What we know:
The protein is of the alpha/beta class.
Amino acid sequence: MNTPIPIIIKLNTQKYTKNEIKRISTFFLQNKIVAYPTDTIYGLGSVATNPKTIKKIYNAKKRKKSKSVIILVKNYCMLKKYFIISKKQNIFLHKLWTDNSKPTTVILKSRDTLPKEIISKDGGVAVRMPINNHFLIDLIKKINQPIISTSLNISGEKNVSNTSDIPNELISHIDLVIDAGILINKASCILDIRDINNIITIRK
């Protein structure tokens, strides 16, 4: 049986149009699965508010349900809608996520506004605000929902730096591929800041 072929959009993330953002956002809003460039590496994503698409991503990646995924938000207003944030955490994040800062993901305690399928057993969810990536911020603004950002690979395998290298067993689950050329960045570091007085580095 032939592998289903996703729609491919070539995109310059430094120079894009409103129509391109609108077209891409439509796939997310229709609960499709999208391979897209993040502020670090290529990601596999969907809206983070639909349990069915969350399950699709886990199945596509052959990812254990015990391993959580990262979500991206557009601003602090959206962050506070989906996460419980103390005053100290808020101050820390404003210092962490600044212009020209290194992409850093944090684990926070989620509110019940997120589906249980995306929340770890201990109530934490990994989240990042890609403040230095205008394409992602504009995209999430258009979608007006947080989006999933998990690595574009089968769980445990090498990250994909070029969309032409997406394995067939994964690409058959994808509806849209946004090709932004070769990405050779590293995945973001991850900090667990639920206890702001005892921050734990999960990934450097």
